[in-house]
């Protein structure tokens, strides 16, 4: 006999879309814990990597606002250190910051509906902010794909296809149309937007 | 016999400085609940009104970032509505936004060490964001001062003095030196900085 919990089937479970940017600091703690929290909330997570670069560029910015505003940038690293300590996550400041996330995002876009998307994304964030690795390195990304159970060679080819590149650009447009201006962001099926790692719990509650 | 609670005297209670801007949306929910939360945490709050205008100007901005970035501004009002609902606070979008907060801040600076500073500040925020009143109106501010138990006439004169105007400018410089770039911000006695209404509880914990 199904319990109240199991009565939600895959089809009827409420969905929350997780919009993240691989170079974004606060996307890291969200990526590491969203599936655990979503399981408790009985919400299905749709992983949607996108790029903040074009959104910042439209704003007249040529790099991260954390670089353009030094005081805000200094504070962000202090705050990240405190947040990561509270969550038991390691934190290393990668160089350069922000990292070049285009290839990681293309791979993520190619695999956004694959069973390995969550594990791959967490592995990229861990390499970047847990170990300080350079996530623009194709060899690193290929090895993370393999560890996540993906056919790395096929996925890398798929990621480089014109269709996939266009698809990622369209993801940025879709994010913009949803009102997204930063990462992480969360959108419910009814179109409610929540911005920031601090709003993850609220977004999950809203999704239900 | 003193209990553990009352063993803290006025002199030994840890202090947390609350840096706020009367025109700042997220300063409102912090101002309304900080004394209640501080009492529970046995922390003394130092109220320090300052101005974000000069800090934004140094950044090349001539108005609130919520106006310069329309998507962020639209989101902020949605988020404020949700936050205020959670806290049981009324929310009205004042016009113009941001409000001209110079006179309110000068009065707040003149009275920053007076017993009425908390009540006056809450009254200004309530008038602005709870009722949509124009807080640049001297008559409104005088009536809020009277209700808070201040000698409104003397305080308004004090607020307009050259010494007080210079003092408020120095407060902005002091804030900048502490690394402050937005409001609300909280600084502990050891110089730790916390930014945003979302960090109020963390800041109080750090102050202890």
Can you describe what's shown?
- The structure is a homodimer of 208-residue chains.
- The first copy, chain A, has one domain: Glutaredoxin.
- In chain A, strands 2-1-3-4 form a 4-stranded mixed sheet, with helices on both faces.
- Chain A is α+β, with helices and mostly antiparallel strands.
- In chain A, helix 1 links the parallel strand 1 and strand 2.
- In chain A, helix 5 packs across helix 8 and helix 5 packs across helix 9.
- The radius of gyration of chain A is 17 Å and the shape is globular.
- Chain A is built from 10 helices and 4 strands, in the order E-H-E-H-H-H-H-H-H-H-H-E-E-H.
- The first copy, chain A, is 52% helix and 9% strand.
- At the A-B interface, helix 4 and strand 4 of A face helix 4 and strand 4 of B.
Summarize the structure.
The first copy, chain A, is of the alpha+beta class. In chain A, 52% of the residues lie in helices and 9% in strands. In chain A, a hairpin with a 4-residue loop joins strand 3 (185-188) and strand 4.
